[in-house]
Description:
The complex is a heterodimer. Chain A is mainly alpha-helical. Chain A has 19 helices and four strands. The longest helix of chain A is centred in the middle third of the chain and has 35 residues, at 243-277. In chain B, the strands form three sheets. A five-stranded mixed sheet of chain B has the order 3-2-1-5-8. Chain B has a five-stranded mixed sheet with strand order 4-10-9-6-7. In chain B, strands 11-12 form a two-stranded antiparallel ribbon. In chain B, strand 2 and strand 3 (143-146) form a beta hairpin. The longest helix of chain B is centred in the first third of the chain and has 34 residues, at 32-65. Chain B starts with a helix and ends in a 9-residue tail after the last helix. The interface between A and B is large, with 94 and 93 residues. Copper (II) ion is lined by residues 129, 132, 168, 203, 207, 211, 214 of chain B. Copper (II) ion (CU) is lined by residues 129, 132, 168, 203, 207, 211, 214 of chain B.
Amino acid sequence: MGIGAVVFLTYYKKWGSLWSYMKTTHHSKVGILYLSAGFAFFLRAGLDALIIRVQLALPQNEFWVFQGDKYNQMMTTHGTTMIFFVAMPLLIGLMNVAVPLQIGTRDLAFPFLNALSFWLFLAGGALINISFVLGGSPTAGWTSYAPLALDEFTPATGNDYYSLGLQVSGIGTLLTAINFLVTIINKRAPGMKLMRMPMFTWATLVTSILILFAFPALTVALLLLMFDRLYGTSLLAADAGNSLIWQHLFWIFGHPEVYILILPAFGIFSDVITTFAKKRLFGYSSMVIALVLIGFLGFMVWIHHMFTVGLGPTSNAIFAISTMSIAVPTGIKIFNWLFTLRGGVITFNTPMLFSLGFIPSFVIGGITGVMLATVPADYQYHDSYFVVGHFHYVIVGGTVLGIFAGVYYWWPKLFGFMLNDVLGKWHFWTFLIGFHLTFFPMHIMGLKGMPRRVFTYLPEDGLTGLNFTSTIGAFLMGGSMMIFLWNVYQSYRHSPRGVGNDPWEDGRTIEWAIPSPPPEYNFARTPKVYSNDAWWQAKKYQNGRLEAAEKLTSIRMPRDTAKPMLIGLFMLIGSFGVIVEVWYFQLIGLLGTIGLMVLHSFQDSSRKIVTPKTHPDEKIGGEEQ
Amino acid sequence: MKKAINSIATLFLLFMTGCSPEKWDVLDPKSSTAETQLSLIHLSIALMSIVLITVTVLFTFFLVKYRKRPGWQTETKNQKPGDKKLEITWTLIPILILVILAVPTVLDTYKLDQETKASDGALVVKVTAHQFWWEFEYPEEGVTASETLHVPVDKKVIIELTSADTIHSFWVPQLGGKQDANPGRKNRLSFTPNETGVYRGSCAELCGRGHAYMRFHVKVETESEFDSWIEGMKQPEQANLTDSEEKGQEIFKNQCLSCHGTQGLDPKVSGSPAPHLGDFASQKRIANVLPNNRENLKKWLNEPQKVKPGAKMPSFKKDFTDEEKDELIDYLMSLKVKEGEK
Ligand code: HEM
Ligand SMILES: [Cu+2]
């Protein structure tokens, strides 16, 4: 794939533009960086998934070398990558692309920090991928439980890469959250009250708060793990320390994490469904309340991952009830979406299909979630394939469908051309069918006794047919990703350019009031907002024009700089030095990082754009031009 | 033609279900505990189906009714911001459903916990999980076994769980849900089996390289069978070994006894670094992987790592001649509990 990229870049003479991306601090370019890197990791982790599924297709199969540790490496890399380097960055990419436009601002509050977040994420992802080549990937699952993950039981360096890779990318994620919080609180267009914000922006706000509270728990957990592994402490060891501390810290982070993955998708679905049903969102305020409530409850339920640990019936019962209660706000959201469809005029194009496919798929994931909360029954489900089925229904049937809906939806805003709708529909249907074929049988496998994270099973287990079906489904999903890639290529070659401001024609939020792609500063004049769905209202009642809140003046925009990328590089070198215990790598990393930070604090990173011209297409104006 | 279809159908069924009588199906409980758990599973599936069906029906209905048709309306006047009554309805009904589910959940959680605490004449078995095998100790009876847990039917069993290394999880789907085996801590789990038979169990928590093969069997037998098995486990091995078995025993003493016990040579009531081989010849599988026969046993002695990744047994490929291996195998195959007199 790397070679392919090099050939492509050289052939199309794109090295220059690659460089311009590498030193960008502009939100939509950073968004594109997140989307491309996330997608590359998606291909890697998807390949891992296919390898897993081939190994499991038949009982006592010996596919290549993927038994024992090698299987555990694949399984761990798959899970870790999908959660931290696929789902999160793709969502953050979409936030970067859409949120500033949705709230009518020129960029995030801290553009330099935004670029830095990206490069830290990439450095972390690179570490996890390097491990595969040097000494083997981590093997203890994405949850990396102690004491298995300690060097007493896993001496190979894989888990060191896990702890440092996630630490570095986690810092990036935390910075992103702060950035979006400040941006959304401070930089909204005049008149855009909180209760007038588009749902995706709302979801981003709540998600950022979750990250702010959840990630420090992960940071601490990873520090303990790193100390135990690299500096000989035994904080998490069974006898000298306490291995349950890891589970608590991990899930205090880990449960909110799954809401971090799903809430932004909820936001995307709300925006897409209202657009293509041509209706305003049913129950906007209850949608917002539900979002906040889900976010809050997300912190109250982590013990449901630990029902079998033996914490006692009282703790289990309390957490069972708090877990079930999340179904209430989630149910409110589902019914509000359904009633948004009622009485609408529904267009079935690709982003809408992905959003509609989400509803029944996610409901299945949701009800199995409630089933998992019934403690005594969970003693049966826990750590079985039932759970693997459940969380893929939620993550793939929720987050991944949401990401595709968002990518198809905002693609024209990013690039000025549409993705092909026919190929898009092929992509959708093969993906959806493959998805159900892969993951539905897993619930039954779990009930038939198949434990999770096993590299094989026996012929007499009665699991062959189900596993084989699941593998077929996985390949169908793999194929559907190829259709998506083909679609991107085809559309890049052949789709008509210059699609105009509002290519879907039914846009409701203000990102559809400016050209696609927007000029660097987005809005030449910041618009005034008087209602929800401001752009829709403007089209109906204000001759298709948003009122401008200011005169044309000169604008300051952040300067391009390679410093964020270099800091990411130094962090990579430094962390690598920690893992392989080479002191001068550590020193280089440390000095480089600190040096660049000091340097940065002495430089003015903004430049001036002298009075922008209003774009002929821009639909913001009013009395004075 | 009909015949062909029939045989394809049979093949398909075999393919789908496997073909062994002994299962590990959650949906086919054989103990009080597993029955309690299954009834909750049924209740939750029933309640949740109501939700799924409601959503699916509304979803399909709205999509069909309000899809955009050519030459039809392009816009809707229906821009209602919401409807308080409806929204309250779909807040309250789910709460009601969840209450119906939560009450038995909480009650059963306490009930199962109570059962593990009340020892009232129950059989207590200390189970220690090791990477990657299970040790079953009967403290009252003074017996240790591996691979197969023997328990009498219709009698309450309390499993006292712990681990010698990483976290494992004890799971016999037909007898009851899992509990973690944590190093340095004790957990309890109990069930009363109500039908004789052999049930499969496994480790459910990722515990390292050999996790997939960390399995075991539970043999539920009549009280008298169980008692005579215990008796047999306490008997030293019979003296009348054949020549070759005797030679094998000698080799075993020198090379294997440091880790493995057998009743005759070392009954080892607890704390063995490797499975107890007292009842080896009646095991179904070697190391839970290969069907138990001479050929496979040789394979295992030669390359334990290859048969079961992560196994902590060294290879004896080079240590013995073929003849010695045969003698050793003869001896191992003689290790079968001779039922005690009753
Ligand atoms: C092509 C689609 C996919 C297939 C075929 C697939 C398959 C699997 C399988 C078979 C496992 C279980 C491994 C085991 O228990 O031994 C697994 C685990 C997992 N998958 Fe996926 N998966 C896919 C997509 C995804 C996506 C999109 C995500 C998240 C964004 C994801 C997240 C996870 C996680 C977190 C685990 C748990 C890993 C662990 O236990 O440590 N998967 N996947
Ligand atoms: Cu285990």
